[in-house]
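Both lines are given unchanged directly below:

***
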Amino acid sequence: MERLYVLLIGLFVIGCSDSSLGPQEDCFCGLDISSTLPQNSGMYELEYDSSLAQTYSVLDFQTECGWSQHIQWDSDYMYNINGYWTSLVNPASMTDEDGNAKIVFAVWEEFVNKTITIYGGYTDDHGHHKVDSVKVHVIDNE
């Protein structure tokens, strides 16, 4: 019986060591979305490849909050495929142990000469919503 009391007290002490009972520390988890695409006037440029049905590229996501952050993605344009509206960017990714993630996005010919805004974000351990965005201008130099 004494062991049960010690176990219960131990669980209570461990459970109460959570900082949510006292003032929470500030969370300095930032985020940054970037790409290896060339930039012009502060916006990325993706050259459409007319020999393909779609042109793909990758965006990089960095945060200082470490691994296993669920990143949600969206864009301000969609594409209709057989009656289903599809985002230009995959909807989710996860950060690695260093707080980095990658996501693929694609464009079709209809997006040539358009500027697409792609958003990425997550909620940190303190419940703060973090969002960043990049603009990608689709060009066709052919």
Notes: The first strand starts at residue 31 and ends at 35. Residues 3-24 have pLDDT under 50 and may be disordered. The helical segments are 2-15.
